[in-house]
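User: Study the shape:
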Amino acid sequence: MIMRRVIRDGQVAVVYSPGYGAGWSTWNTDLPDMIFDPGLVDLVLEGNKEKILAYIVLRWTDATIMGVDDLAVEWIPEGADFIINEYDGAETIVLKDQMKWIRA
């Protein structure tokens, strides 16, 4: 399944929750389209938290809505591999080429 994405100047919009307390994508791993959803991207960029919450509740009825207050958009290069890490609810986006691997 190909997910719709917002792409501008070769960068893909990724929605995540950088604030502490609750993860967004890391607590909704069964709903991977949430991080790329164009409607949600637009609302997060607009910054209207009431509209964001209403959109999420209507679009994903089974979603965990914790972390919604801190949603942000990060732009990453199109085609880049990445992961979203979570520590104590705070999510960070790490590109594959930024990871330091250790070889045995």
Remarks:
- The chain has one domain: 7-98.
- Residues 85 and 92 are 5 Å apart (CA to CA).
- The longest strand covers residues 11-16.
